[in-house]
Amino acid sequence: MLLWTAVLLFVPCVGKTAWLYLQAWPNPVFEGDALTLQCQGWKNTPLSQVKFYRDGKFLHSSKKKQTLSMGAATVQSGGQYSCTGQVMYIPQIFTLTSETLMVQVQELFPPPVLSATPSPEPREGSLVTLRCQTKLHPLRSTLRLLFSFHKDSHTLQDRGPHPELCIPGVKEGDSGLYWCEVAPEGGQVQKESPQLEVRVQVPVSRPVLTLHHGPTDPAVGDMVQLLCEAQRGSPPVLYLFYLDEKIVGNHSAPCGGNASLLFPVKSEQDAGNYSCEAENGVSRERSEPKKLSLKGSQVLSTPTSSNWLVPWLPVSLLGMMVIAAALLVYLRPWRKAGPLPSQIPPPAPGGEQCPLYANVHHQKEKDEGVVYSVVHRTSKRSEARPAEFAAERKDSSIIYAEVRCLQPSEVSSKEVNIRSTLQESLGDCEEVLC
């Protein structure tokens, strides 16, 4: 009786430490390995009613099997394991518990990281390279990894040994969410990278500006709306509004589209050439100018290459007048030696008209010797020869002029003598000495 009591006291004490123990293999265990637990008695003592626990929680039980297959190991498969089993010592049955076994599953390779070169925001038309990066554990470096690439809901490239994917000449439609997947050849582990958003940057197109107001030209106090829109371009788009070359407002379109500016007409200074500019960090484009005219006023547009001379017209005209006045003063070298037309004496009695002649002496120093003489001779109404006078009446208005250039030695300082002879076919000759 005393012997059985000693056995009962000894078995539980010893069994907890050496009579029952738990094993896990393979060791070390990596992701994808088939993890197996074995609850074993001292000297392979048969066990019954074997139960397995992880972190103190029940996992599985078996009446006779002493092993438990955990399937392909994952990082989450690690933990503190233990087992219990019944041992029969006739005529008694004892329940024994193993020591805790720490199981740590090694990571075969970290989750891949997808990157885009040169940038996840490439410009339209450029070349983009997607690279899927990861690294095997040194103890499993002989394994071969396979890579696949995906975009949104479809596959771009099936599993293969190449960790890169090239996309030549990206377009706006290539924007989207990309990711890659890595798996060892013949293995059950596969890991996906975080999603990478690729946004192809499209240059803005030339915007179109539209002026909105009433059916007629606006007046002071009326409202005017400027609407600017670029048909293409990656958002966000910043719109700038100009009056001539001065910025009068701006508006941002975070999702693209158009932008507007509403303002009241305060004065005639609000009239002029309006334009808008679209900019999205990729390119910048300016619209065609639109002229805004106010009711009852005429506004000159901003001086351009065709009308920049307008402000200088008054100055130009004034300069021309000054030059003309100077020329008149400079070129006034003449003087009349004879009487002015208003000073011509009245006709002499008897119907005769006095000769009309004039001497002109150029006063300029370099032309000092030039003398002009003009003589107008009217026929005498002689009562003695009326028939001859009537016959030659038609020639009575003949004008002769003589011009002679004198040498400086022949010219007197006060007067110049020019002799002109007026000869008429009637034989009536008169010499005029000036």
UniProtKB/TrEMBL annotation:
Main location: membrane
Residue ranges annotated for the Ig-like domain, each copy included: 12-84, 111-197, 207-293
GO biological process: one example: cell surface receptor signaling pathway
Any one Gene Ontology cellular component term annotated for this protein: external side of plasma membrane
Entry keyword set: Cell membrane, Disulfide bond, Glycoprotein, Immunoglobulin domain, Membrane, Repeat, Signal, Transmembrane, Transmembrane helix
Compositional bias (Basic and acidic residues): 282-291
Top-level taxon of origin: Eukaryota
Membrane-crossing residue ranges in chain numbering: 308-331
Keyword Transferase: no
InterPro entries: Ig-like_dom (IPR007110), Ig-like_dom_sf (IPR036179), Ig-like_fold (IPR013783), Ig_Fc_receptor (IPR050488), Ig_sub (IPR003599), Ig_sub2 (IPR003598)
Residues covered by region (Disordered): 276-303
Subcellular location per the Swiss-Prot or TrEMBL entry: Cell membrane
Keyword Magnesium among UniProt keywords: no
GO molecular-function terms, A-Z: MHC class II protein binding; protein phosphatase binding; transmembrane signaling receptor activity
Signal peptide (UniProt feature, chain positions): 1-17
Protein name: Fc receptor like 6
